[in-house]
Design brief:
The protein is of the alpha+beta class. The protein is built from 4 helices and 15 strands. It folds into 2 domains: 189 residues, Immunoglobulin-like (Sandwich), CATH 2.60.40.1730; 48 residues, no CATH class. Helices cover 25% and strands 37% of the residues. It has a 7-stranded mixed beta sheet, with no helix packed on it. A 5-stranded antiparallel beta sheet has the order 9-10-15-12-13, with no helix packed on it. The chain starts with a helix and ends with a helix. About 10% of the residues have low confidence.
Length: 287
């Protein structure tokens, strides 16, 4: 009876320690949902094309808060080596400039926006920055592509997302514009909708509770052409010719050893399986 009670007490202590370790991990990593001051958000992403394949991003965010907000951290690029970000700033609705610091982690760059004094209820602000080499060309096509996948990376609920692509002033009119990733089988073609200011732009909107599948954030279009840089992952991979060459060299040496060793008297009888494999490879190579 005493041993049974001791066993139950040990299990209770074990569960208590596990619960404490979970709470400590949440506090340390800020991974618990209750610790996130943002309950949900809406975003309006405006991407303006720049000469040479760059873009300017105007990201308008509306955050609904469940507790006091001192700062907000958001991913602004996931490929800093290619798409270097510049001139990052943030402004509160009403015109107040907000302190903004950048945090790099490998290819990822986050912008941390500080609120002084802290905000409660809800907050609206805009982050503006430019990015180099953001546009690329899909090889073997006439299509340009702008990938914006980091705008789908949020830890809280994203109620609404609006994406706008704007052509540069004086450039040819946007043609053949679509939203989504063709490789994922999800692509929605967009109609050109000039704004009241007369700018040339296309727009895609999605709601998290609208029953509509959220597409991978990306634009592609045919005109205007602003970049000749090939998109990564398209075309013929550069490592394939080298691999083929290495395989050819390896087969050549294998056939050489086959001639030297396995045609000698008695050797092929001692290693019949290896002899058969090398003989087959040499026959394939010579044919």
């Amino acid at each position: 009876m005493g041993k049974s009670l001791q066993k139950h007490q040990c299990q209770d202590v074990k569960h208590y320690l596990l619960a404490l370790s979970f709470v400590f991990s949440c506090l340390l990593l800020s991974g618990c949902s209750d610790d996130d001051p943002v309950s949900r958000a809406s975003q309006d992403v405006g991407a303006s094309l720049l000469p040479g394949g760059g873009i300017q991003i105007n990201l308008a965010l509306t955050l609904d808060l469940n507790k006091e907000l001192n700062w907000y951290k958001i991913l602004i690029t996931d490929d800093a080596k290619v798409m270097a970000v510049q001139n990052v700033s943030a402004v509160l609705e009403g015109g107040q400039m907000l302190e903004t610091t950048l945090e790099a982690d490998g290819n990822y760059v986050h912008a941390r926006v500080h609120f002084k004094p802290p905000r409660t209820g809800s907050v609206k602000f805009t982050i503006v920055y430019s990015s180099e080499n953001a546009v690329c060309k899909i090889e073997d096509t006439v299509l340009q592509k702008l990938r914006l996948s980091w705008f789908g990376e949020y830890e809280h609920e994203l109620l609404k997302s609006t994406f706008r692509l704007r052509a540069a002033v004086g450039s040819p009119k946007l043609e053949g514009a679509c939203f989504g990733e063709e490789t994922a089988g999800e692509l929605e073609c967009l109609a050109d909708e000039p704004s009241e200011s007369g700018e040339d732009a296309v727009t895609h909107s999605a709601f998290s509770n609208g029953g509509r599948k959220v597409l991978e954030p990306a634009f592609q279009w045919s005109i205007p052409v602003v970049s000749e840089r090939a998109c990564s992952g398209t075309g013929f991979p550069a490592w394939i010719p080298l691999t083929i060459a290495m395989i050819g060299i390896l087969l050549f040496f294998c056939c050489g050893w086959y001639v030297v060793l396995f045609r000698s008297s008695g050797v092929q009888q001692r290693y019949p399986r290896l002899h058969a494999a090398l003989r087959c490879q040499c026959l394939v190579t010579h044919h």
